[in-house]
Specification:
Length: 121
Amino acid sequence: MTVDYNDTNTLRHALMGVDVVISTVTGTPQLELIQAAVSRGVRRFIPAEFEGPTNLRPSHNPLDQGRSTALHYLNHYRQQGRIEYTVLVCGILYERFSPGGLALHRLGLNSGLAGEGDYIA
């Protein structure tokens, strides 16, 4: 479904009946997606993350792209009991589900988990 991240109504419509959102956008679009998800009663949210553990990040990262704000939003809504969230680091979920998986790039061949969709969190 095509959505306009600047139009809350299209986001809310797209999230009808959705339990889990795995975000692949950052910045303002992700913040809008979080707010729409909370307003629609989405139960779980996984923000777009491509960095290391959150506790090791610098507090004023010029390359943040709104990720710290997204985590702030999610933590705020979690404390209200409105949504649960988790953070997946290094983009490994996306790599595992990409066409051909990691094996396409000759990565993880000895792990038995290099194929497309072999790894599920």
